[in-house]
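name: query_chain
kind: protein
chains: 1
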Amino acid sequence: MNPLCPTCSREVDVEGSPCSRCSPGTAPIPATPNEGQPASLAVSLPSTDPDAHLEGLSGWLIWIGFSLVFAPFKIFNSLLTVSIPFLFKDSNQAYLAKHHAVTILVGSETMTNIIFILSLVFLNYLFFAKKRGFPSYMIVFRTVNVILLIGNHIAFRLFTPFRSPQATNALIVSIIGAFIVIPYMLYSRRVRVTFVR
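structure:
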């Protein structure tokens, strides 16, 4: 009787060596029913994703990462230098007392910007942790951002005498950014293979 393979216990020619089924570099030989073992299914090799080389925070995702990092600081600076001083400056109190619409609009804009800052902090976490939910949350954020900026812009035009070129520019930049980022989140192969955790 021939010696047995130490791996699968089949008979082999040389004692202590694996059989042709277990030898490195050879494909497993499926057992046949007449050998006393059930026939095995064909071995399928793991499929490799052709886009796997795209995985990582590179390409256009670098631009998105930079904008996510700097956006909270930009909004925070606007709060400290424009919105909050306007609401609490002594020389503005008499004007605000007569124009309640202005107080409400600037106050709501301030609260909205605080919510935007918190949302951006959350998006930064999702982005750098490569979380699966990042693309969806980013699409929602961009959409809501544009809608609120349009509403705010229209309200200021209707109810206040203020005309701010900076606000108009911010609205245009937000709309253009949404038209770039949302399709990229939906259709980019790099996004699909990067945000999977």
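note: The two ends are 54 Å apart (CA to CA).
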